[in-house]
Amino acid sequence: MVPISQAYGHGLGIDITAPLNYGEEKILISVEMIPMYFDESQNKKIRVYVYDKMTEEGISNVTFTIGMGWFGYETAQQPNAVALVGPYQVDLQEFRQAYNQTYRFYKNELKQEVVDEADLKKKVIQSMVDQKVWLVAADDWGVDVPPEALRNNITKRKEFQKDGAFDAKLYHRLLAVNRYTPKQFENKLVKDLRRQHVQMIVQDVVMLNPAEAQEAEELAARQTAGMEDEAEKEKIRKRIRLQILFQKKHLI
Question: Following DSSP, what letter does each residue of 63-107 receive, concatenated?
């Protein structure tokens, strides 16, 4: 038995392990979830592909040990947690806040009279899991936010300013209205800034070569087979490209 790094197949619909040096081979394993979201009306498939990165040839006669959890990530055992992604949990309060904000956006901004609550819950959870995946990457790369950077970000936000200057009373009042303590808000902001930094690194530093771009298109074609919503299809294409960029950056 040869241990490898984890490849979940969640969040972006596809995941790839870090390379495993085995003899003269550099083995990679990709896990692809088809379709991206599972429900009762769809055929469910998990495609596991093992190949040698040096030759791009597939490897056969392999036995896998696969763990399954709700939505493809680990189901949290804590009573107030919805899911776990690595060391990070999506807690119930966090989920409720995100769901309520998204629901209000659909009703007030998009003017949707009827909102599919089951579908909306699924989208919110998926988005939150994606955010945790980026935090795992930030941990791997040592991306952090210095206290002075956090302070500057807060004091420069216009919603916390009065007459062009930061107002501490306004800051605390707005947080209270949105049911945040300063510590909760600042911890959330640190995570947001770390995630944004990692996304900028991936998008600005790494580019896909033609072979990788072709691989992304093929994966996207399988993920979107039968879909009619062009906006959703484009969203899936972008997610797959970002996942391959993330993996490539990790190997540099």
Answer: -------GGGSEEP-STTEEEEETTEEEEHHHHHHHHHHHHHIII
